[in-house]
Specification:
Elements: H1 3-21, H2 26-33, H3 37-48, H4 71-83, H5 89-99, H6 108-117, E1 147-151, E2 155-156, E3 162-163, E4 165-170, E5 176-181, H7 186-200, E6 205-208, H8 224-231, E7 235-238, H9 248-261, H10 269-285, E8 322-325, E9 331-334, E10 337-340, E11 349-356, E12 359-364, E13 367-372, E14 378-380
Parallel strand pairs: 1-6, 6-7
Antiparallel strand pairs: 1-4, 2-3, 4-5, 8-11, 9-10, 11-12, 12-13, 13-14
Helix pairs in contact: 4-5, 5-6
Length: about 400
């Protein structure tokens, strides 16, 4: 018994003993022992009831619990949590409804209480969210209107091999198209995307960060990979530098991927890839998503109706463009001289259109790269990055 509770019981016994002496009034005893008159009468009545332990605190728990969850239902909830140890109460309830839709499952809060009592939920330290002051454009609503591609942070398997997981998702349905261990390079990423395009068709756009191999510091932020995407008719969308929230859905998937497949890492790269494959299937077919009305992504996902072309051709330009092919050194011939555009565009065809007297905009497909001024100096454009409510611009004024 706690020391504080013991002292409180002694105080109550002494208070009633002083009352029995007749030397004090009820008001005086209440003031002396720091209790209200109602509290004094409560303890006096308990002593008068004949209870030998009248001075002890009583439990405030209800005598009966008519709304208590049936033990069999609680067992089903605990079994589902053990089957999906990374699912929270919301996803547990969604999975239970998927498997037994006619059964009266308890509320999410009740499921959480059951899991806590069973020791199946560890307490999580909550951080206060910062106030959002700026966001990227509104997310696309159609499946295959935008895919997201990125590398989850690298780590090592237990045998010391470096693992770089490339991930690709559909932004609208959250469908995880791929988790593949490849080098963080153009030659590592392109074959994966090429295979996905052949199997599932082309998205309208591809969202990524600014780093290699997806973007660059060159003209228009383009890399060899994004140039290839533009030739396929896939618009590259870039988030703002150091703003991972611009690709928040994909980053949230990365957090789940890390939690379920890398703690601890596998012994070898091959074993780690097997875990990624199993995670992708579970993520798409079994895991309910709150933003999708607690349905798995596979319920919404469908392949694109834009097939991968058999041959990748050069972009076409209107008649008001002068066409130049970028040399291996990254420059073009222009008005009797040479203008450097960028090595990433070596071998590609660009279109140049006059926008003002003596100034010309250089485009690749419908993507503006920069401007040539009257002194024949090329000024590169940064990649267009949309914010909330703004459409991505593909031209520059």
């Amino acid at each position: 018994m706690a020391f504080r509770e013991t002292c409180a019981m002694e105080e109550r016994i002494k208070m009633l003993s002083d009352y029995d002496s007749g030397a004090f009034s009820v008001s005086e005893l209440s003031a002396l022992y720091g209790v209200s008159r109602e509290t004094f009468y409560t303890w006096r009545n308990r002593r008068a009831s004949g209870d030998a332990l009248w001075f002890r605190d009583r439990s405030h728990a209800p005598g009966t619990q008519p709304l208590r969850t049936d033990a069999a239902v609680a067992a089903d909830i605990e079994a589902m949590r053990r089957k999906f140890p990374y699912f929270g109460p919301k996803k547990i309830r969604a999975r239970l409804l998927m498997e037994a839709p006619d059964k009266a499952w308890p509320a999410v809060s009740t499921i959480g209480d059951i899991l806590k009592r069973a020791g199946l939920i560890a307490p999580v330290r909550r951080r206060r969210r910062p106030i959002a002051v700026d966001h990227p454009q509104a997310p696309p609503l159609e499946v295959n209107s935008e895919w997201c591609v990125d590398f989850k942070g690298w780590f090592r398997t237990r045998d010391g091999q470096r693992i770089d997981p490339l991930t690709v998702t559909d932004n609208a349905s959250r469908y995880l198209l791929e988790v593949r261990i490849v080098p963080q390079s153009h030659d590592g990423v392109k074959p994966v995307l090429e295979r996905l395009f052949k199997e599932f068709g082309l998205p309208l756009a591809m969202r990524s960060d600014n780093g290699a191999p997806f973007g660059s510091q060159g003209a228009g932020g383009l890399s060899r990979l994004s140039i290839w995407l533009l030739k396929l008719g896939v618009a590259p969308h870039y988030g703002r530098p150091a703003k991972p929230q611009d690709n928040g859905r994909h980053e949230r998937m990365h957090r789940t991927l890390k939690q379920e497949t890398t703690r601890p890492p596998s012994a070898t790269a091959q074993e780690q890839q097997h875990r990624f494959d199993a995670f992708r299937k579970s993520f798409n077919d079994e895991r309910p998503h709150e933003s999708l009305d607690q349905t798995p992504p596979a319920k919404l996902w469908r392949p694109s109706d834009r097939p991968m072309p058999r041959k990748v051709v050069d972009p076409w330009y209107d008649a008001d463009h002068e066409v130049r092919r970028v040399r291996s050194s990254g420059d073009i011939k222009w008005r009797g001289g040479h203008v450097f555009i960028g090595e990433a565009l070596a071998g590609e065809v660009v279109g140049i259109a006059e926008c003002d007297e003596g100034r010309y905009v250089v485009n690749f497909a419908d993507h503006a790269l920069g401007m040539i001024d009257p002194a024949k100096i090329f000024h590169r454009f940064a990649p267009p990055r949309a914010r909330r409510g703004e459409a991505v611009r593909t031209d520059q004024e």
